[in-house]
Write a structure and sequence with these properties.
This protein has one domain: Rossmann fold (3-Layer(aba) Sandwich). The strands form two sheets. Strands 2-3-1-4-7 form a five-stranded parallel β-sheet. It has 14 helices and seven strands. The protein is of the alpha/beta class. Strand 2, helix 3 (61-68) and strand 3 (75-79) form a beta-alpha-beta unit.
Length: 270
């Protein structure tokens, strides 16, 4: 092993797990827990929108950057971070490995509707759940989809996150892949993290044997993580049981072609 390769082995990753709200961010945390020494700060959180990321109001950039600067070698952060060039440039030039976690927006809507009604304010925090308390389930779905008072609708918020999918150095991570193609997804993410960690070296060491062990350990941690965090049911396609005709029609009106662009449908006839 060359001196440069030895230096690569000694490097430790900086990981930022960025997820659109209710897309499975807590499941992805098992990956960061396995391959880092722990969170950069406690709580290991940073976001860029007010009202706990239920709005489209951008928080002051200086406050967000203060959180990102906590990232050090061997640590991770999690958050709901919309796209701004200043955030991308900072993360890129500091060698951060960033996964952008997203999910079928229909299942996201279902998850959000249960989040705002949960009585567990510690695990399922929302700044004002009283707004939704008098609504029935269909009304809550419509409120999450279209917005209510200062809390913006699903696609109004999604549009501010979606540009991350066009950033070539960011790792796009589908919730459905974490659930249904776990080992493959973990292995690809670990390789991506290693590539970002050794970025700039001419001949980075490829830890094949270590990668196998880390993949196995991470998959086991993900199985455990399903029982914790803000994970409720986490089933793929739950929306089919919960959408009413009214919600389905309103969703199609607001969704545009996002389901096609994200690979969840071939056309709008669903």
């Amino acid at each position: 092993m060359t001196e440069e390769q030895a230096a690569a082995v000694e490097r430790a990753p900086r990981i930022f797990l960025n997820g659109f709200p209710k897309s499975g961010l807590h499941l992805a945390l098992a990956m960061a827990h396995t391959i880092t020494d722990g969170p950069a700060v406690n709580p290991s959180w940073t976001g860029c929108f007010t009202h706990n990321s239920w709005s489209t109001n951008w928080a002051p950039v200086v406050n967000v950057m203060a959180g990102l600067r906590n990232l050090r070698d061997g640590t991770y952060l999690k958050g709901h971070m919309g796209y701004l060039p200043v955030y991308e440039q900072y993360l890129y030039w500091h060698g951060v490995a960033m996964a952008f976690i997203y999910r079928d927006p229909r299942d996201v809507l279902i998850s959000q509707s249960y989040h705002v009604t949960s009585t567990d304010q510690e695990r399922f925090f929302h700044p004002n759940k009283e707004i939704y308390a008098a609504m029935n389930h269909e009304q809550r779905l419509m409120a999450c989809l279209c917005g209510v008072e200062e809390f913006s609708g699903l696609f109004d918020r999604w549009e501010l996150y979606a540009p991350w999918l066009s950033v070539p150095w960011v790792f796009p991570m589908k919730y459905e892949d974490m659930m249904e193609r776990r080992e493959e997804t973990v292995r690809r993410f670990l390789q991506y993290v290693w590539d970002r960690t050794t970025w700039g070296l001419e001949q980075p060491y490829q830890p094949t044997n270590m990668m196998d062990a880390m993949t196995e350990a991470t998959v086991k941690n993900m199985d455990i993580k399903i029982e914790g965090g803000t994970f409720r049911k986490g089933r793929v396609g739950d929306w089919r049981e919960e959408f009413t005709p009214r919600v389905k029609e309103a969703f199609k009106e607001r969704c545009g072609d996002w389901l096609i662009r994200l690979g969840y449908e071939e056309n709008n006839d669903w």
